[in-house]
Amino acid sequence: MKNFTYNNNEVTYATVTRTNGYGRYLMHADWTDEDGRTQSSTHISNSAPLFDMYTEEDTKEEAKKIIAKAVVDNYYSL
Fold first, then answer.
1. How many folded domains does the chain comprise?
2. One pLDDT digit (tens) per residue for the chain, 78 residues
3. Is the pTM here over 0.90, yes or no?
4. 36 in the Ramachandran plot: left (φ > 0), alpha (ψ -120 to 50) or beta?
5. Residue 38 structural domain
6. How far apart are CA 41 and CA 55, in angstroms?
């Protein structure tokens, strides 16, 4: 994955995997914040279409961006 910047955070990693429970997916992202600190967080999703995008080679990079944005937004909303 190519790093990209989202809301002054440099995202370095994003993934989604199936988790316990019907139709549940665990999104995970790692990023460096604007102060240079490494951050990592997870967020539960029920988006099967997003998981499908992530498993298709031609849409995987776009899915990673969507995943990272959701995880970062959730992290800073807490």
1. 1
2. 789 999 999 999 999 999 987 889 999 999 999 999 999 999 999 999 999 999 999 999 999 999 999 999 999 997
3. yes
4. left
5. 4-77
6. 21
